[in-house]
Write a structure and sequence with these properties.
It is a single chain. With 689 residues, the protein is α+β, with helices and mostly antiparallel strands. It has 27 helices and 21 strands. Strands 15, 16, 17, 18 and 19 form a 5-stranded antiparallel β-sheet that branches. A 4-stranded antiparallel β-sheet has the order 4-3-6-5, sandwiched between helices.
Length: 689
């Protein structure tokens, strides 16, 4: 349910939560409680209807709640339901909404809105809420489509690298940039790319391969390199590209349609030259002598004469990870085995499933490959979900988000005083590693303007306060962490300006953001005041149970446990074992989809229990494609449930009592004043036909 719907329905949501509290699953419930509204945000942007002037509907200890907010939320939470637009329903909602605001008021009073945890969580939801209003709202989708387009094409390229670390000093960075720029000028002037790569590139492999990378496709190179390679025309040299390894220039030599992936099996005989993995002790010493070559061709002849592939693989292959599985490898694409180019080239040269290669040698040893299948690039819809997960984990998402953050700074008129920034950056010291930095300098420094956004100046004092409230223990250098905190402050201020713009252009965003903010606060304060208290207070639970025994009366029941499986044949095997009098093994028990412990069941509590005969012994049932085996231990006569049996319901009921008493106390603590005149106007607005 949306955040505020859960909020105003108080006891209904708390009953649901009590069961999750019992299972220590509050995190997922909180996710549902607050985050699911994001899915609905796009559909409720224009449901507030006719605007009315911002009259105060009610106030709590002087804090106003406006009629406009109440009308917006009521319409949002009762879409297309005319039966809910009655005086009684609106009155009921108002009572619940006042209770909700009382709880939020108490959360503010306790300072729950000032914690690092709260602000971090709110930022996560706030960033999600903004996405529908941004031009870059589909960044992940765009990057996933881009990656897919790249997967359809393979690029052959060479590169020259001048190394420089991301955190290098400005002089070192400039020196590296100057070097690579000079090399690029020489190439554009006609000098040979491969020759300069061998002489000047700081990629160690360039000395032997002239900087050649062969063919590659998406998600095999770091993102800035990949993007530059795909954007550069065949025969051209790219501009200077910065990655986490340093500065590159790329020469694109060819582009071709993707070959997709291949799945192959192989038989491997290692040689000493390629034997980074020790040969089996019982293997013949093969070094680089002819014996290795002779043996691989002998195996090849046996295959040609009809000997079984799997038998030969198991007998001879020295790839211990695959020899007992027919030598089968995971599917791979072009560039994935760049370190063993002969293997990759041979695998892709095979044409028909079952085709076997001639023996060939690589830097690992001698191989024979059998083609299992060729896998063309599938349609986007088939790979979208998997590809999106890969893209989300890849650096391209972070890099693109950083680029967008820079663009947003520009949009909101970001201007930085570099001299003042340099003056405060020298204040970073080792206390930042422990998250215990404090400003100890001249108070005049606090007045220095560090940056501005539109009509707002942010001063050094603002930054020092930010550091003291947001620092945590870390392993970064003090200067790097100080700089990171500075960037976070800039981004937070840009975010505030962005929100101001969104609120001005889209008034409903203000209500959505308020819903999330108050939804988080409600959850936190309810967890402390009601849910945790009820689930942890065993003495209170037992007292409540004794005082309300009649609530826990039950009719006929059975004591049973339930086994489930999706494999009917397995269930038949188990039945035969039990019929013979055999005891089920631990392995048998693990094969079941689930095994529930013995407990009491009432009619209507379980669709599986309702399907069986209520007699002691083993019963069978089937529901929704799952097969169940129910072991009925005994029939249980009607009567009062024991505390253990009723405990989940006791906790739920106890929560309702605690919440009722707490709300009553809050009403005494924070006076509530309802404007009856405005309420009449609201009622007219909501109940009109």
């Amino acid at each position: 349910m949306p955040a505020n719907e859960g909020a105003v329905k108080g006891s209904l949501s708390s009953k649901k939560l009590s069961l999750h509290t019992e299972n220590s699953d509050l995190f997922m419930e909180k996710f549902v409680f607050v985050f699911i509204a994001i899915l609905q945000a796009g559909s409720v942007m224009c449901q507030s209807g006719k605007k009315i002037k911002p009259d105060v509907l009610f106030s709590i200890a002087g804090t106003p709640t406006y009629a406009e907010e109440f009308i917006y939320l009521y319409k949002k939470n009762h879409p297309n339901s005319l039966k809910d637009f009655t005086s009684d329903k609106v009155d009921e909602y108002l009572k619940l909404f006042v209770n909700f605001k009382l709880k939020v008021r108490e959360a503010h009073q306790r300072g729950l809105d000032t914690t690092v945890k709260f602000n971090k969580e709110l930022k996560t939801y706030r960033d999600e809420l903004k996405k529908p209003y941004r031009a870059d709202k589909d960044l992940l989708d765009l990057l996933t489509h881009e990656a897919y387009d790249h997967l359809a094409l393979e690029v052959k390229a060479s590169h020259i690298l001048i190394q420089v670390k991301p955190e290098a000093s400005p002089p070192d960075t400039l020196n590296a940039f100057t070097k690579i720029s000079e090399i690029r000028k020489r190439i554009l002037a006609g000098e040979d790319f491969g020759k300069l790569a061998r002489e000047l590139s700081e990629d160690p492999s360039a000395k032997s391969n002239g900087g050649s990378l062969g063919y590659f496709t998406a998600l095999q190179m770091v993102y800035p390199f990949e993007k530059a390679a795909y954007q550069t025309k065949v025969g051209d040299v790219s501009s200077v590209i910065r990655t986490r390894f340093g500065y590159h220039i790329i020469k694109v030599e060819d582009k071709r349609s993707s070959k997709g992936e291949v799945e192959v099996s192989h038989i491997l005989l290692r040689t000493a030259k390629g034997g980074q993995i020790p040969r089996p002790k019982n293997a013949t010493e093969m070094d680089n002598d002819p014996k290795v070559k002779n043996l691989i061709f002998e195996i090849y002849d046996q295959l040609k004469s009809g000997r079984n592939w799997n038998d030969l693989c198991k007998e001879y292959s020295e790839d211990t990870n695959t020899k007992n599985a027919g030598g089968k490898l995971k599917a791979f694409g072009v560039g994935a085995l760049a370190a063993v180019p002969e293997f990759e080239a041979t695998a892709f040269a095979l044409q028909k499933p079952g085709e076997i290669s001639d023996p060939f040698q690589s830097n690992i040893g001698w191989h024979i490959i059998r083609l299992e299948k060729k896998i063309p690039v599938p349609p986007y819809t088939e790979v979208e979900a998997t590809l999106k997960k890969r893209v989300a984990r890849d650096e391209r998402l972070k890099i693109s988000e950083q680029a967008l953050a820079i663009a947003r700074r520009k949009e909101f008129g970001f201007g930085e005083n570099e001299e003042n920034k340099s003056r405060i950056m020298v204040l970073a010291d080792s206390s930042l590693r422990k998250g215990k930095w404090r400003f100890m300098g001249n108070l005049e420094i606090k007045k220095l303007v560090l940056f501005s956004l539109l009509n707002k100046d942010v001063r050094a004092g603002d930054f020092f306060d930010w550091v003291e409230h947001h620092q945590t223990s870390n392993t970064l250098s003090p200067s790097a962490y100080f700089s990171q905190l500075y960037d976070e402050l800039v981004d937070e201020n840009v975010s505030e300006k962005e929100e101001e713009k969104i609120k001005k252009e889209n008034p409903d965003f203000k209500y959505l953001l308020t819903e999330y903010r108050e939804g988080i606060l409600l959850f936190d304060v309810m967890e402390k005041e009601v849910w945790n208290k009820a689930s942890e207070d065993s003495i209170g639970q037992k007292k409540f149970y004794k005082d309300h025994l009649a609530k826990y009366a039950a009719g006929d029941r059975i004591e049973a446990r339930i086994f489930s499986t999706s494999d009917k044949s397995f269930l038949e095997e188990v039945k035969k074992k039990v019929t013979r009098g055999d005891t089920l093994s631990t392995a048998d028990m693990k094969k079941f989809k689930s095994v529930q412990n013995f407990r009491n069941y009432e009619k209507g509590e379980s669709k599986v229990i309702d399907k069986i005969n209520w007699v002691p012994g083993l019963q069978e049932a089937e529901a929704d494609g799952t097969f169940y085996w129910v072991e009925v231990k005994r029939l249980v006569a009607p009567g009062i449930k024991g505390f253990a049996e009723a405990r989940a319901h006791v906790i739920s009921d106890y929560q309702e009592l605690l919440e009722k008493n707490w709300v009553a106390a809050l009403k005494n603590k924070y006076p509530v004043s309802i404007n009856t005149k405005v309420m009449k106007t609201v009622m007219t607005e909501l109940t009109k036909k």
